[in-house]
User: Fold this.
Amino acid sequence: MTFKLKVLAAAITMGFSFGANAAVIDLFTQAQSVSDLLGGGATSTFVSGAGIVGTERDVSVDVITSPIGLGATASVGSGYLSLNSQSGVAGNLVVQWDGVDGSMALGSGLSLDLTDGNPIASMGFVIRTYNADSPFTFSLGAYSAGGASSVILLNGHTTAGFIAAGVPSYIPLAGFQACGFVGGDVLGVTCSGSVDLTQISALELRVYGTADLDLTIGSASSSQVPEPAVLALLGSSLFGLAAFRRRKQD
Assistant:
């Protein structure tokens, strides 16, 4: 069985008002490929070009469990990001947007306002899972000047076959300020300092795979979503993440 992660064209985007055009983080049209075998640490590659926020995309694959001689390959092109692992292989994928640095050492080359002047409570990322036949976890990290960071770790959604509409996970921007929150699909919010969501210097997506996982993810976007839609996407667990942050402020 193969481990496949596919993110659709313009899937990682940022829209600053509901229904408005999105500001692109990555169109996944700049071709890129990297392979890794067990042992020796992660293998990385870097590509620069149009359609990538901060100009450069850094991709790393790290095989953590594998039969001898088998490995995993991450590739980008034609609007897709994919991770294909051979049978019995479990691997982790890291994608960074941190400006031009030619390194997986997290840089600080972005100058990105995730809110674009909108209230933080009305903004968030939407990540859709179209297919996942085994459990997996993923994290989304936001970093700002002075070493401040916030990383949200979540359980991914398993599905019974391919779901055409996708199963959405909504991560409110307020969640990045809900340090210490645990509940529902949220396994934890880890903070260092106070991340400034109006001055983001780097973004990082991590997917933690299990052996023999078939996974398809798409439609990861940040946009302003009306409250009823937020409630429909979140259910109780992720909405609680935003509410937790508001209670701490109060």
Notes: The first helix runs from residue 227 to 234. The two ends are 49 Å apart (CA to CA). The helical segments are 227-234, 237-249. The CA atoms of residues 38 and 68 lie 8 Å apart.
